[in-house]
Write a structure and sequence with these properties.
single chain, alpha/beta, 7-stranded mixed β-sheet, 4-stranded mixed β-sheet, 10 helices, 25% strand, globular
Length: 281
Amino acid sequence: MSTQIEIINPVDGSRMVWLKNEFTEANYDDMNHQSVQKAVSLELVLEMGKGYLDAGANLGDFGIPMALALKNIGRSDIKVYCIDPDLNKCEFMKEIVKLNNLDDASIQIINVGLSDKVGNFSLNPYVVVDCGDYTGAWQYTEDEDGMEFTTLDKLWKSGIIGPIGLFNLDAQWAEERILTGGTEFLTTYKPLILMEYWVVTGRFADGSVHTAIPGYADTRGRNSTFDERSFQLMNDDEFKKIFDILDISVSKRKYNTEKITKFGEHPWKEWDILLEFNKIG
């Protein structure tokens, strides 16, 4: 049983329609999560003037508000793409899109998994790291009998996704593989990349993570500063190769630096990290 409610759009403060039910409660639908980050992201999308892609879109709590905010200012020409491997989440997003009178020209829901190669993957329900048992903590591992995963490059070459200016990447420790599978696409459009960063400290034999430290804590478990986390990310062996291939680094723009003053010396609970290409054009 679903209850239709009206909520505040965290991107632009307007009103929007949402649904509450057992499914949404099980999948962490808190619109206030990273609300400042969501609002500032609109500025970045408008600055870049191209589409917005949300990989690991969950229930669309970032992508759908973004599409509505763009529609409200007459910028439906900037398309939003929400990608998630879970069919139920994608069906939910399509329902929310319809309730808010959005169309296919402004937002596209894409039910597919992303990796560094085309292959079959299955959900590993037994691998849950310390961020809890929400579906956001699920991980997909290779399985010949599983569902098909693809790459950003293939989606682009197939005409399923187009130009983007901001790439929101939150994919539970699959970030490096997704970047690797999108090198041609990403180097063509050179979007800003807003990436969740957890330090992986242990993996099982199948590659799934069993130990990871969230982005706002260091290896000693204390809150870390922005400079500390930036240094750790840029020197993380998991990302070094793909960062070199793409030629990207932590952004120097105010999006990253302002948060230090807004949130004191421990800003990471609100913000993922913003990356940008070192050479534009």
